[in-house]
Amino acid sequence: MARKATAESAANDANAGRLKQIALTYKMTRKADSKIGLVIAGVGIVVLGVFLAIGFLLGHPVYLGILGLLVAVLAMAIVFGRRAERAAFGQMEGQPGAAAAVLQNIGRGWTTTPAVAMNRSQDVVHRAVGRAGVVLVAEGNPNRVKSLLAAEKKKMARIVVDVPVHDVIVGDGEGQVPLKKVRTTLLKFPRVLSGPQVTAANDRLRAMGDLMSNMPLPKGPMPKGTRMPRGGKMR
Q1: Does this entry carry the keyword Membrane (predicted)?
Q2: Are 145 and 169 spatial neighbours (Cβ–Cβ below 8 Å)?
């Protein structure tokens, strides 16, 4: 009985946590997308209305009404998720460290190390390691980050010799990748490494150490106005 009560309590806490997270996400999304509530409600009403209409035509309004309600909830969830994601990217774009926040949520199989290289202008290079190899993601001034990328790629060539090294510059210019497409871009790279090879590459890179390994880095976008310490080593 005690175990059952504990399990039920944990389930209730988990459900409450999900609802709280959904409510928080909705509030944050509404700040950037004031029409989110109307859009979601409109999608649900239209989908349910279509199923009810079909149900009356076929003589099964109750059955299709229930089915329509389930489909309407699913459609509302999909629309809400996409608009919330769009609003989140809109708020992050242009902020230093935004790419790191995206990389840290790329999914299983990837190991992300933020700010492996940085200069005094806050141009920064992040690193992600997965079955596609090493991906260096740069954000900042396109002309300045190229030198950072070149130096980091040269270093990768010495440390992980047999591992492919890709580079991505975040931005909206020619040859750059928009922030919202960074994740899909990394996932499109061909998977050429096995699990043990990825682990070995991570071990070698971890042994090398990074610019920010001894400096606390907040999760998500870095605050504006952040400056590297004068005595800090630049790459």
Answers
A1: yes
A2: yes
Give CA–CA dist 164/68, Å, rounded: 48
H or E element that contains 84: helix 61-92
Q: pLDDT tens digits for 161-183?
A: 889 999 999 888 888 888 888 88
Count helices and strands (H / E) in the chain. 7, 4
> Measuring CA to CA, which residue among 134, 139, 126 is closest to residue 169?
139
Mean pLDDT of the chain: 78
What is the residue whose two structure tokens read 């079909």?
A: 54
| Distance of alpha carbon 22 from alpha carbon 15, whole angstroms | 11
CA distance 235 to 230: 13
Tell me how far CA of residue 6 lies from CA of 11, 15, 68, 94, in angstroms.
9, 14, 36, 46
Contact 32/91 with Cβ under 8 angstroms? Answer: yes
- Whole-number Å distance between alpha carbons of 60 and 214: 66
C-alpha closest to that of 144 among 120, 174, 166, 112: 120
